[in-house]
Amino acid sequence: MTVDGGPDENPRYQKVIGFAIQHFKRHDLDALFIATNAPGRSAYNRVERRMAPLSRELAGLILPHDHFGSHLDERGITIDEQLERYNFEFAGNVLAEVWSSMEIDGYNVTAKYVEADEQDVPEFPDIKWYSEHVRESQYLLQIVKCKNTECCRPRSGLFRLLDNRFLPPPAKVKQTVDDLVLDEGGQFLDLPVNLALRLSTTLKDFFDDPADQILYKHYLKVRNGYLLVGPNKILLPTGYETYADRIKNFQIQPDDVWITGYQKSGTNWLQELVWCIGNNLHFEKTITLFQRFPTLEASMYFDTNKMDLSQLPQHLIDSFAYCDHLKSPRFIKTHLPYCLLPDEIHTKKPKMIYIARNPRDICASYFNNAKLFEFFSGDLNDIVKLFVNDKLMFAPYVKHVEEFWNASKLEPDRILFLRYENLKLHTRDVIKQVGEFMEKPLTEENIDRLEKHIDFEEMKNNLAVNRRAIKFLNVHPDSHFIRKGAINSYKNELSDESIKMLDEWVEKNIVGTELEFLIQ
What we know:
By secondary structure, this protein is of the alpha/beta class. 39% of the residues lie in helices and 11% in strands.
């Protein structure tokens, strides 16, 4: 099926996907493909070209919006919803009458006003079924039967044509002296030719930027790809598109406590401190930190067709529902930049604590995290190259820090801005500062206990924070989520080449700015 790009039909919207799955199951289809054109390509969209005569008939037509009387006040706001429905229905019938008098390509047009059915939203399938049968991208939705005969029984020879069940990615191909090769200067193949050639294509083949090639070569084990979001061009997994509305509309409670920061800035360390203060120094050793203090957007980190999500804990399978159902007061973490936080953050105004760290040490620490959680297959130098080119998740780093720094100056009672280095060097002072910010003043004795509890060696030996927290990854027994926590550890871990790259990046982006304190 080919559709236009509107939100009511675009195949990347959850409601559209839900109806497509319902249609696929109801009619026992072997496969259902729904495609749309990219923005700016409407002239090539067959659906819109066929609808052009309908648009022409609307020239100069004024639809009566208040036939039964005005349902709006002087500000244009609806004050009578029932009257609004009557007026809308009348206008719709007028439009249907105009269109029904037309012909398109010799065929009579049949147009009819249909009352909206608000309750008919299909239930979404479970995650395991979804991961086996559905592939989604920005312009194409594919729903295909699986090869497990206990689940699906194909009725055609489709799989003889599609070995891998799903359509191959579009590829530009060029004929050389020796062979057909992928080349941006080539031509797109027709689908039958693409299928017949069975070209081996990967996303990294479509990028000229060396940083993009690193990203797509070493970072696709758990996700399909990446996109740039908003005017700051924030790098996020493609899964963000699926969850963007749930992030934006996540319901905030005024007594929530939020921890945020760029990845590997010390958020997990800070989480344990904040949890203990908020729970009257209850040093939890059985429930993992990720369960007590989950990450709101964690579900977008993994694409359903890349991992068996049934093996993941609930706080990762549906992190939004998990966070929503936490007992009040809720403790929630996010790495999202300030501009992408849920809307109600700015109206309900819960307490937020941001932690920032020297970007050089972030790179040194990020490598371990990337291997554990994202199955990164590159090396430490690759991480540095990605960082300085704003190609790590939630980049650009400077914008991330800058937004929260500015917000904390405007609302110091609501947003506390901390430095990792201060928490490391002046632990007692920061513990006291956090307690006062949370309106939980601490005695000297309690500060002593907290200082000991969040000591890095203690944290490394705390199974609920370190080993047990990542057991679902099936990593090597010697793997640790919490590493050294040292300041300036990059000097001993990064190559001379990487340090030079970071020094040049720091000179260009931080030296001489208001954020220069990050490197002091």
